[in-house]
């Protein structure tokens, strides 16, 4: 029995949109959809066109079955709360696999399974799993629809929540399908095999953590994800495609797919420098991307432009500079800690048309989370129980909002530029309570690659498992690099060469703590002071002192007007602690050695060179 096609109306409380296209002009896509339908046995197949009518029908259906709860229309128009399964609230790194034919290609940085075994395991889970459900076919484009840097995919899912989120996070529906068809037909006309789009298959399954796997097949441009409805596990365009599969593709095609925000800093003379920054999950990317300048800077005319808050695809342009696009069209941001003080742009962005996941509620159905500080009180926690502070926070620490990027007051129109923006500086950073100063600059590209490769950070609630444990998270890509880190570092090193005009590389730490356990740096808007210094360095104007770990500013090299820093703060934020760095470099050396002979010699040499300087 073949399933009804585009039968949204049979489940929705509103009539189905009549505009949906069922099927495509691409035989390979139709064949894959038919194959998946035969395996998963859905009651209906719906090809998503991305229209408002389609979204309205899906939202009505989700409201009817309780997947989405309406928020207060007076304070949060067009916005919804989704409560996930309590065991399905974050990425699951221990259940995430990279399935290359050779294990060493996935590297010690990934869990690996042989492709045939992984397919067999997943297909057994997918068999018949969509019985009684609608199967949605979501064509999407990562990046501006007309950009040569963009790449497309198709996600098949049985979750309308995933469809609604993908519609906010990607360019989804008819325009994406048109691009996929055009690229596919052109490729076929050239007589080439293979597909131009990434095939992502997803089912929420039973939401049983024991039957949950996120599998990547980079050599086949394919993803299979079962048993979770949560963001990074289920919105396959995001981490699975735009980082794990894309990083693998990027290595073979000479570009980079990175876990980075992209922000434009406009100075009072109207000159804009674009900065890309890699911080691990829940370590400040969204906040830096939407930064509001301190008052003095605002008076002088500084402006901040948000291009992206999580993922950055870069490639060298004709002038040797790296040009970057944000492959995403929305933000899947951390709610806790977002306030009018810390991130007013984010708060303004999410005041309408937003899906909140796992936040608390006030008595009159406004979303609530720890740190919101808007004078309201929670009545209900993220599980839907009456709020009881003895039973934990009202919002889950990894509660999120999903919203269209264009709603952000600082949204940059350059986010739609098909050529991308030129990057002046690359910034690495992590959560380091001790040792690591506020900012330093790498001496050159090779040193910069080492600084990225050596990144360490304390774990956060963005993934299940212990929080606050220091681990190496090179370039913030530990959970996201789709191949062996040793090869990834080689790929990074390979960008340096004749004609290259690469960004300057920096490292920051907004999270240094004092003896009292409190953050020493005010952070948030004041981080612009550090970005200003970096741009000054790029232009050869700002001062620094040379140390074995790189160029460090002294406090007077930064504009600290209006910032009160204790003597302890000055010493720790701007100091170089030789003994601590000796131990750190020994640990970095061991880490690099853990990758064996595949680790590029140039990086090991750089580590040894600095270790020698530190020993003096
Ligand atoms: P993902 O979406 O998981 O990739 O996270 P992210 O890197 O975008 O992190 P985000 O900006 O959402 O910040 C995560 C947490 O760090 C929030 O609770 C923020 O309030 C907090 N945070 C961000 N920037 C700063 C800062 O400069 N200083 C301090 N102390 N906290 C910060
Ligand atoms: C992260 O964990 O880095 C996120 C959220 O940005 S997720 O989409 O779940 O990966
Ligand atoms: Mn992220």
UniProtKB/TrEMBL annotation:
Predominant location category: cytoplasm
* EC assignment: 4.1.1.32
User: Which top class of enzyme applies to this chain?
Assistant: lyase
A Pfam family in this protein?
PEPCK_GTP
Detail which positions bind GTP. Answer: 282-287, 400, 431, 524-527
Residue sites binding substrate per the record = 91, 230-232, 281, 398-400
Spans annotated as Disordered: 1-20
Q: Name one GO cellular component term.
A: cytosol
> What does this protein need as cofactor?
Mn(2+)
**Its biological function?**
Catalyzes the conversion of oxaloacetate (OAA) to phosphoenolpyruvate (PEP), the rate-limiting step in the metabolic pathway that produces glucose from lactate and other precursors derived from the citric acid cycle.
The family line of this record is: Belongs to the phosphoenolpyruvate carboxykinase [GTP] family.
Q: What is this protein called?
A: Phosphoenolpyruvate carboxykinase [GTP]
């Amino acid at each position: 029995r073949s399933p009804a096609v585009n039968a949204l109306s049979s489940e929705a409380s509103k009539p189905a949109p009549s505009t949906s296209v069922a099927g495509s002009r691409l035989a390979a896509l139709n064949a894959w959809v038919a194959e998946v339908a035969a395996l998963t046995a859905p009651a209906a197949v719906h090809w998503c066109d991305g229209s408002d009518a389609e979204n309205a029908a899906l939202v009505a259906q989700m409201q009817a079955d309780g997947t989405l709860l309406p928020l207060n229309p007076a304070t949060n128009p067009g916005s919804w709360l989704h409560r996930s399964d309590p065991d399905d609230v974050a990425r699951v790194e221990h259940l995430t696999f990279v399935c290359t034919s050779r294990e060493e290609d996935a590297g010690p940085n990934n869990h690996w399974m042989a492709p045939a075994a992984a397919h067999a395991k997943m297909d057994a889970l997918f068999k018949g799993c969509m019985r009684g459900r609608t199967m949605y076919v979501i064509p999407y484009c990562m990046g501006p629809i007309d950009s040569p840097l963009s790449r497309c995919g198709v996600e098949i899912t049985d979750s309308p929540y995933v469809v609604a989120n993908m519609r906010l996070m990607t360019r989804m529906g008819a325009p994406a399908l048109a691009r996929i068809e055009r690229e596919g037909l052109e490729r076929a006309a050239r007589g080439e095999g293979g597909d131009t789009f990434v095939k992502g298959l997803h089912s929420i399954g039973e939401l049983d953590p024991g039957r949950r796997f996120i599998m990547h097949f980079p050599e086949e441009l394919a993803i299979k994800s079962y048993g979770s409805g949560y963001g990074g596990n289920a919105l396959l365009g995001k981490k699975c495609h735009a980082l794990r599969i894309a990083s693998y593709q990027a290595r073979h095609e000479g570009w980079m797919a990175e876990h980075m925000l992209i922000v434009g800093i406009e100075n009072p003379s109207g000159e804009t420098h674009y900065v890309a920054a890699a911080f691990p999950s829940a370590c400040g990317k969204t906040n830096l991307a939407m930064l509001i300048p301190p008052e003095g800077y605002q008076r002088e005319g500084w402006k901040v432009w948000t291009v992206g808050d999580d993922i950055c695809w870069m490639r060298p342009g004709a002038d040797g500079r790296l040009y970057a696009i944000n492959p995403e069209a929305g933000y899947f941001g951390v709610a806790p800690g977002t306030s009018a003080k810390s991130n007013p742009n984010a708060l303004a962005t999410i005041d309408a048309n937003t899906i909140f996941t796992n936040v608390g509620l006030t008595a009159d159905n406004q979303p609530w989370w720890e740190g919101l500080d808007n004078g309201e009180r929670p009545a209900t926690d993220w599980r839907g129980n009456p709020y009881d502070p003895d039973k934990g926070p009202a919002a889950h620490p990894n509660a999120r909002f999903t919203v269209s990027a264009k709603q952000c007051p600082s949204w940059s129109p350059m986010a739609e530029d098909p050529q991308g923006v030129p990057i002046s500086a690359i910034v690495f950073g992590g959560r380091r309570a001790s040792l690591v100063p506020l900012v330093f600059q790498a001496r050159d590209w090779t040193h910069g690659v080492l600084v990225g490769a050596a990144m360490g950070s304390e774990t956060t609630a963005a993934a299940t498992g212990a929080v606050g444990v220091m681990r190496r998270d090179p370039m913030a890509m530990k959970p996201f690099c789709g191949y062996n880190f040793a090869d990834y570092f080689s790929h990074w090193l390979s960008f340096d060469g004749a004609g290259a005009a690469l960004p300057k590389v920096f490292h920051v730490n907004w999270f240094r703590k004092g003896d009292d356990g409190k953050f020493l740096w005010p952070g948030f808007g004041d981080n612009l002071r550090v970005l200003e210094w970096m741009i000054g360095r790029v232009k050869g104007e700002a001062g620094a002192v040379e140390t074995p770990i790189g160029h460090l500013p002294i406090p007077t090299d930064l504009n600290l007007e209006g910032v009160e820093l204790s003597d302890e703060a000055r010493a720790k934020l701007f100091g170089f602690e030789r003994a601590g760095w000796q131990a750190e470099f020994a640990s970095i050396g061991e880490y690099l050695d853990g990758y064996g002979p595949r680790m590029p010699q140039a990086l090991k040499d750089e580590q040894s060179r600095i270790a020698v300087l530190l020993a003096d």
